[in-house]
Amino acid sequence: MKKKTVVGYFVQWRRGYYNGSTTKYNGRVVTETDNGRSFAVKLHLPSTNIQLDPKGYPLPRRHLICKLVNILLSNGSNNPLIYVQEYLQTQSISPPLTVSEASEILKSIHHSPPLALQFFKFCPLSIPKFRHDCFTYNRILLILSSSLNCDRFDSVRAVINDMERLGVRGNISTVNLLIGIFGADEMCMQLLKKWELKMNRYTYKCLLQAHLRGRDSGKGLRVYHDMTRKGYYPDIFAYNMLLDALAKDYKVDEANKVFQDMKRKHCEPDQYTYTIMIRMTGKIGKHDDAIALFHEMLSKKLAPNLIAYNTTIQVLAMNRMVDKTIYLFSKMVENDCRPNEFTYSVILNVLASEGQLGRLDEVVQISKKYMNKGIYAYLVRTLSKLGHASEAHRLFCYMWNYHDKGDRDAYLSMLESLCKEGKMIEAMDLLSKIHEKGIDSDTIMYNTVFTALGKSKQISHLLDLYDKMKQDGPLPDIFTYNILISSFGRAARVDEAVKIFEELENNSDCKPDIVSYNSLINCLGKNGDVDEAHMRFKEMEEKGLNPDVVTYSTLIECFGKSDKVDMACRLFDQMLSHGCYPNIVTYNILLDCLERCGRTAEAVDLYAKLKEQGLTPDSITYSILERLQSGSHRKFRTRRQNPITGWVVSPLRAPIVGLHHYLMLFVMLAFSVLFGSIKAPDLGVVQDVPQHPHPCAQKFYVSYASDSYAIRTVIYQDMVYVTITNQKKNEDLAHGQNSMLIKLYMSMKSIWDHVMVQDDEYRPNCGFLADFLQPLPSRESAWINLLKKAGGGCYDLLYSGHMLVSCPYSYGLDGMAVGTRHGGLGFSVGLFGRKKNVNR
């Protein structure tokens, strides 16, 4: 009876949960109880050679699987499935290929998704009574998910559509695979409801990761809360992924809650978890919390890895805690954690920013056992880029003295640093001694030194080094020749440049390129041999080298500077006809040529072409346009001299300014500010601006310059500055000296008498200190006497409403103030001041 009951339950289990993958048996009921609760079935097993497992399931035929896999992979035909079908038919495989065997074959050829998909489609079409189940569908979906083909998503959708068409019901693994492929797609959720499946822990994890991969930490956090409410909790990998996403989005509170919840749910954080939290708290400035997290990690016997150390060191460095940074670095080395380049870069930056680069030697000593050639090269290169050449040189010397073998990158970095600092003797000396450390000097090293020598125009050293290179150095390459040609051209050594170019032409390893011709054409043209430059240009075209925009621009500039503007214009047209589009530099060169020759109409047309091409004018373009508008298209421009300056200014200039002149200026400025006569400059206080400022201010405020009446008024008010005593006039007349000064005085006096303006409207608002700051001829005072005794060194003290300034003419001392109303910054030199001081 016990045996019958067991068999009955077995059949009931089969009835309730039957699916396509279940093994089918034929049988009949032989006994049954009265209440029908138990019965016995006699099974008729099929007569076959297939071996069964203890539960009665057929075992996959390994020899058949291996044979079919070999046929699929080893046959060179484009369609190996023909040979598979032929083998199955000729060998009379009985029973035919099963679903589990097909799944094993798919697993063996997973590295070839197209072949796997062909075999997947082949099975139901060519094998009798073969029908895929959800397991083989899952297998092909897994293979397609790892495919790199751009059409893999379409292939997956086609498999799902075929699955639904045939009525094959997927399981939860199918949904998990689809979430991994498509992310949190609506199709995945619809299939989940259609197949009446329940999400398990792995499904939630896949959905969480899908949202986080899509950089949507908000939806990921909601999935996490749904997951925990249903009693599922992520693993350590999912926790770290969620915390990292929240930290990157600066959701600090949410990250801290998840971190605390993680520890409560008995999922112990690892080194990566603490690293994420340390980095997040450090970025928001909570360095104390970051250090506390680091100590918490140590208390839990978690050995910090390289990332944890680097993150904590970076937090300390961001808060300029140099001592703690170096201390943690020493602990890192003690715990046998090798620093990498990022570690040293963080320490270098904090030492440089805090002015403690001298402690770099201490860092090197701490990590002495890990200092190798690569680290030395990185440190030298980084110090050089940061502009600390002396520290880089000291570290390089340490490496040179204590290491028998050198590092090429370190030596190249040191060469670049020396060349950048202009220490060419040291650079050439280093280049000659590199072989002592087992390093052969290469072409790049020589080219680095050649470039620096050429920029500094040290041609003698350049020639010596080139001779040495030809004797016992590496062979010159095309870059070497181009650098030499350009260097000789920069130094106006045309013969040497042509000689190097001819040497390049005779070289069997390399021939002149566009850069070579550009350098030679520039050398010839800039040094006056435009015809030879043009010949080289034609030679370049004959050799099949297409001139580029640099070639055309260079030659156009050479034609323009030699007054061959027509040739420059023809070359520009040729440039366009050959499909080489000019850039803004080309347009500026030709515009300047046309402007200097007075061909304004052509220049305007050229500017229109520039705009049509869509180029943006730069400052040089606008300066040329300003000259075109002003009509100042002269070949040689001379500064127009003010009719008053020259024969007038020199006798009015004060004697050499002494210390007492500056003291006098300081006292007068101090009193002016103290008694409210003026406002202190640049304090944001709106000043009382008179209607008409000083004429010198008109250089900056053009709106006042059109009123000649106001100008004459200011001249009248400033007459005191050129007033001379009768005694002085008699002496000058008697000796015939300073007659021009008297003429000026008389001309100004006539203007004064003609205008006779007494209205206070045009007088500077000097307050009650007018006697001191702007005295009139009738107002003699002790201050006037002091000014006269000072020799005129401080006599031009003005209050124009925009500025209170003083200028001793002999030294050009410019007083300065900023007017807050107009925001103008002016330098006044008085009525007869020098123009160069005004326009500074």
UniProtKB/TrEMBL annotation:
Pfam families: PPR, PPR_2. Keywords: Repeat. The keyword DNA-binding does not apply. PPR repeats lie at residues 200-234, 235-269, 270-304, 305-339, 407-441, 442-476, 477-507, 513-547, 548-582, 583-617. InterPro entries: PPR_rpt, TPR-like_helical_dom_sf. It comes from the Eukaryota. Gene3D superfamilies: Tetratricopeptide repeat domain. Belongs to the PPR family. P subfamily. This is Pentatricopeptide repeat-containing protein At1g51965, mitochondrial. It comes from Tanacetum cinerariifolium. The lineage of its organism: Eukaryota, Viridiplantae, Streptophyta, Embryophyta, Tracheophyta.
